[in-house]
Amino acid sequence: MNSELLLSLPPNMCGSLPVCDPELAARCFATFDPPGSQLGSGGGTAYLLEQGWGASRDGNRDFQCLEGEKGESSAFFQWLERGNKLLVHSGGESRRLPAYAAAGKSFMPVPALRWKYGQRLDQTLLDMQKPFLDRVMAAASGARTMVASGDVLLEGSVDSLPDADVVLLGMWTTPEDAEHFGVFFCDQKNPEHLVKFLQKPAPEVTRELSRSRLFMVDVGVWLLSERAVACLMKKCGWDADAQSFSGGLPGTYDLYGEWALHLGSDPEEPDADVSELSVAVMAVENGEFYHFGRSSDIIDSSYRLQNKVMDQTQLGAVPSMGQPKQFILNSVFDARRSEDNTALWIENSFVPKSWGVTRRNVITNIPENDWTLELADGRCLDIAPVGDDAFAIRGYGFDDAFRGPVGDPSTAWMGSSVISWLEKRNLSLEEAGLDPQLDLQLAPLFPMFGQKELDGAFIQWMLDENPAASSGFSNHWKNSTRLSAREIGQQANLKRLMDQRRDFCSRSLPVMIRHGANSLFYKLDISRAAQEYARAGLPLIPEEEIAWRGDRMLPVHDQIFRSAVCRERGEEALAKQHKQEAFDRLHTLLVGPLKSKKPDPFCPVPKARFVGGPGRVGPDRAGGGREPPLFCLKRGGSFFSVFLNTNGQPPIQVFVRHINEPELVIRSIDLGLKETLKTYEDVGAYNQLGSGFAIARAAFALTGFHPDFNGSFQGLENVDAVFAGVTARAPRFQCLEKQLEAFGGGIEVSLLAALPKGSGLGTSSILAGTLLGGLADFCGLGWDCIEIARRVSALEQMLGSGGGWQDQYGGILPGAKLIETKPGLSQDAVVRRASSEFFDEAIRDGRILLYYTGVTRVAHDVLGEIVCNMFLNESEVLTALEGIAENGAHALDVVQRGEWDEFVQVIRKSWELNRKLDSGVNPPAVQEIIQRIEGSYAALKLAGAGGGGYMILITESHEQSMEIKRKLTGSPPNKNARFVDLEVSKTGLQISRS
What we know:
- The protein contains 32 helices and 41 strands.
- By secondary structure, the protein is α/β, with parallel strands linked by helices.
């Protein structure tokens, strides 16, 4: 079920969202609390829901309210039931984080992280928040309304949520940390059961209650049922009959300080309406909580996020891990900095060499300048664009709360107080026109000038703790048009601010590219970076100017980036050229190592014998489709596979025998075709995709029957040998015929593949593995299953198919297993086996069916598109692939525990991830089959890359299976469609001689 995004934002951002982020504005609803109102978190939630519903009724949104049986009086709840609602509150004044008050904390930029792929340089906190919130919503049952805070980023996992009116997410912590949050006190025997909620209890209170209760902190994510929303709306003054609030607006009501106190079996403040709601608390597994409420928080939380992954072997090419707390985002920064300049945040700013920074400096929105400035410890500077060409100069202290009377010496500002600041500049409250009782947030302290009037010396005078006396500057400040912090938030020109950010961001791209491995550029979403690069008209950087630092994968990414930039510019020929170069370099990386480990085939098998290598089929059960090799090289792979026989026999078999003629003969038993290879050129034609014998040609090459891979073709050993005077040895064989004569004759291979092409069952990879296994045994190469699988991966690249590594492992190793690899060019797998009984029983009961749809699709077409998107680090593709890996690992756990219902969920998620990964995975012909059996299955998915081939059907019972068979066999969707008998293979790849 899709979620509608509803945002509560500052008024300024609400009006500016369509021009600042039109893509987001088109898919969300945004509003703000009415001016002058104090609705509280509960009233604000009720108001946001009511306004979202009102927008749907006006026809401005896609989620139109339907008239139905419930009548007009329940129209609001009809809208509520139509889909999940995700509410993010980010509409406060951000007094402790003034730099992002105008746009709201949800739109503050978050640094690109060294361990994460698919990022944007201008990514926002909302971008980072959304994936976790979406996962939580997906784990909920029924239509839900989620309420989340806009200044908190959460990480962790929530597999499934209990069915309750109010579901609260929590994290385990200490009584000292709990003092700053709402706290759930839960039953010791049943942690999901809420006893009571307390808001920011003192540590001694928490410790005392913990003697008989468990406790967790509230992380600010609540899920409400329709019943719970109705209760909250009623508390805020909702008139169900009138479908509006009494008095037009909701009353002031706090979600955490009032409503929450009524929840639980022993609530702190019982309430007849609220206390009867069912409540469940769910701990976020491996939960992480990052707060972005204050200036210090954005630096500390960003630093924790940056160092979340400490295992440096998992990071790939990254800058040094030794950086202090310094964050420079979307900026042109040329000033000098060192390890001592800790707690720096410089964003959307131009900082030339003439600037000096120290510690605890937050510098934001600075236009291009040539000023000379020195920022002392704790001094912060924001220059907000206002109107068409003016700027408001806002200086403040790192820990300023922007709260309290300006006439109170204890009201902190700029390291001391407003009174002290004025006195040091020979000014008074009266001269400044400031009422001593005026709240600091409302005080007009910040002068506004046109860009030409901006003066570095004047700004320095404003920032200095003890400025030099200057009546000119004092009068300049006193007589200027000044704004308060609140007015800056209300009047800042957010389009100008965003345009400047985009400009600085684009100007930083060539710098990042030149730094190569020393920057995070090649972990960004390269497709978006290419759009910005082309839009800015930036020239491509010569490759020799880029510091790769020995990383062999980055040049591959660089070529695909160049291709994307050229495509954006309409230079299609160049785009195609760079794309091909990327694939060629990947091919070299994966196939090249095998050319240094060249086999020297010989014939230990008596001439009259055959070597047979029967293979079996291993459709992915939970992997969600093939993981492209690039993803596995960078992130490692995880894939759950079951090795199957179909129709009582291994459907892939290979026979190898000796022949007298010095030639290589390939026969296809099922196709009735034959081809004879007589030259090295014949063998080397394996990259002609579409050839019925391309796999066999490549297999012969890899087993040593081609100069590129033959150990007898030894030239110069290495450069050192040349300087040592070692003479290079000439190739032993000049042609294939001579090599085969020395071998003792030729080889004939006969192939039997009793499965249609494009079945999705990994036929080509398993055929390659079986053929390589048979040839390796015949030629005395001594390869084990791991080496065979490694060479199948290389063979896939030689064919240009971009295939992964899973099918060969799944089809060589027997039974059910999870196959995992670590990041790196060598994708050697670790296999964790599961009992086959789980599948044996389900197959016997008819709960697992295998159906051939009669629709075929070449995986090369699917994988080629996915691999390109992987090269580009497209965030949606990466998210889907990460989900595939997680789902595969979860499948092993579910099978080992024997949990059928959970296994059904695994298959459902796998099919969902398939469709997210590739839009063509479910073509109309397949969808028509699915529609025929709608309601008769528990879960389904297409095997492999999808698009056709075999369909795996999961049912709840034998009766359900029979119903499916009746629907599909009575009137087949096409002449080739059919059910196939299956069984789990216990043997894996077998090689026998006769």
